[in-house]
């Protein structure tokens, strides 16, 4: 199926879902605030070949990135019914470059070969920057990127993440500003320059409750 047709079908799937996946029931809004938001600030080279989407919910941004750029996505979320729904719909649409796992990001380190495994990590609307860095950095290769979708509040969160960045082996490389229907949005791009200590991510809930300071 052609890319734009796949995007259209996937959005229709999201807005008609019986479980509340994305908070939009209008096609045009969902098209802009989900698909355009996911793809506009991204470049194919950011993702590399394999990326992880932590807290993908309804497959955002992971499904749209896989369709748009052809990279292989590994999409995780702690809510199994969301992952099941998204997985089934992607299978129906024959989107083949995606894998899914229902798991907390904190627990992925004990499952499979995923430590320092991905070329990049993406995450949108999951938690504050310091928390999300702890949930993503351990799974990205040295030299890879972490790309976080944020609103205008990102500056304060970034200021509170200086120690987390140092501790996790990541540094800020770029902030890409873009606008969706008059709303300012930012893609915060980090580079992983060093290995992340084995103790990260800490136990379930700790990255959220006690972000690295
Ligand atoms: C507000 S939703 C955002 C979903 C999607 N990324 C989007 O932009 O529409 C946050 C999602 O993150 C998931 N989540 C939160 N903490 C998580 C964790 N530690 N590990 C895996 N998933 C997590 C939640 O289950 C939820 O589906």
Oligomer: single chain
For the biggest sheet, the summary is: 7 strands, mixed
The number of helical elements comes to 9
Give the overall shape, derived from the CA principal axes. Answer: globular
- CATH fold-level assignment: Rossmann fold
User: Helicity, in percent?
Assistant: 25-40%
The domain count comes to 1
CATH superfamily placement: Vaccinia Virus protein VP39
Uncertain segments: none
The N- and C-terminal alpha carbons lie at a distance of 47 Å
Mean pLDDT rating: 97
Q: In what order do the strands lie side by side in the largest sheet?
A: 3-2-1-4-5-7-6
Number of strands: 7
The CATH architecture can be named as: 3-Layer(aba) Sandwich
Provide the list of bound ligands, each named once.
Answer: S-adenosylmethionine
**Over the alpha carbons, how many angstroms does the gyration radius reach?**
16 Å
Q: What's the CATH C level?
A: Alpha Beta
Query: Strand-residue fraction?
Result: 25-35%
Query: Structural class of the helices, strands and pairings?
Result: alpha/beta
Subcellular location: Cytoplasm
EC number: 2.1.1.-
GO molecular function, one term: rRNA (guanine-N7-)-methyltransferase activity
Family: Belongs to the methyltransferase superfamily. RNA methyltransferase RsmG family.
Keywords:
213 residues, alpha/beta, Rossmann fold, 7-stranded mixed β-sheet, 9 helices, 7 strands, 36% helix, binds S-adenosylmethionine, rRNA processing, transferase, S-adenosyl-L-methionine, rRNA (guanine-N7-)-methyltransferase activity
């Amino acid at each position: 199926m052609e890319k734009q047709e796949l995007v259209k079908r996937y959005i229709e799937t999201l807005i008609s879902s019986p479980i509340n996946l994305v908070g939009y029931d209008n096609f045009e809004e969902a098209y802009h605030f989900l698909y355009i938001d996911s793809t506009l600030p991204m470049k194919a080279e950011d993702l590399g070949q394999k990326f992880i989407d932590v807290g993908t919910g309804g497959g955002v941004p992971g499904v749209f990135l896989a369709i748009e750029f052809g990279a292989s996505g590994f999409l995780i979320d702690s809510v199994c019914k969301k992952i099941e729904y998204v997985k089934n719909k992607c299978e129906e649409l024959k989107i083949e470059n995606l894998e899914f796992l229902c798991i907390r990001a904190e627990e992925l380190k004990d499952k499979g070969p995923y430590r320092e495994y991905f070329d990049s990590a993406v995450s949108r609307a999951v938690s504050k920057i310091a928390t999300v860095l702890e949930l993503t950095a351990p799974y990205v290769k040295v030299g890879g990127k972490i790309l976080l979708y944020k609103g205008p509040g990102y500056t304060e969160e970034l200021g509170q993440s200086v120690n987390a960045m140092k501790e996790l082996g990541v540094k800020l490389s770029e902030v890409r500003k873009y606008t969706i229907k008059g709303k300012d949005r930012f893609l915060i791009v980090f580079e992983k320059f060093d290995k992340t200590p084995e103790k990260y991510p800490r136990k379930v809930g700790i990255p959220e409750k006690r972000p690295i300071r």
